[in-house]
Amino acid sequence: MTIGEAIAFIRPAVGPASGAWADIGAGSGTFTEALAAILGPTGSVVAVDRDPGAIAALERLTGPVASRAAITAVAGDLADLNAIPELGRTALDGVLFANSLHYQPNPEKALATAGSLMRPGGRVVVVEYDRASRNPWVPHPLPTARLRRAFDRAGLGAPEIVARRPSAYQGELYCAVAFVVRDV
Questions:
Q1: Is 104 among the domain residues?
Q2: Is the pLDDT of residue 67 over 90?
Q3: Residue 166 burial (C-beta neighbours within 10 Å; 0-12, 13-18, 19+)
Q4: Is 169 exposed, middle or buried (0-12, 13-18, 19+ CB in 10 A)?
Q5: What is the C-alpha separation between 119 and 45, in angstroms, rounded?
């Protein structure tokens, strides 16, 4: 997926939001760059991944770029988001999980932790494969049929599917958004 395609795919979920966001399981940064472009120069993105190769790729995206949000690359594991100090410095306005929750047998834990790091009304955006069968690249699928239950168990609002597109690898990708619905 190109950066332009990623922008078009997640823009309906990110909306007019700006502020402080995190991209959890950012990989080499396709969706990180897309998110930074949508947020614009007043936003910021903490891009988290545990793979040293991904961190190296993300570090190449850091530094000032006048047309997009600042990006900070951080080593960390989505299974333990509370251990990442950069995520707890300020209440986040949004969290993006793009092709990362399918590595977690219990995505509810990561979703709940992300929700606890966010301000009320913040957005949780998920990009995943809409498939039920496992494979080596998608060991724990999160199809849309299971998505609502995962968000509910995480204490988040009901997710809305805002975009779909064919996957280059099989089936379909979806983009969903939900809002953090707790009292201040």
A1: yes
A2: no
A3: exposed
A4: exposed
A5: 15
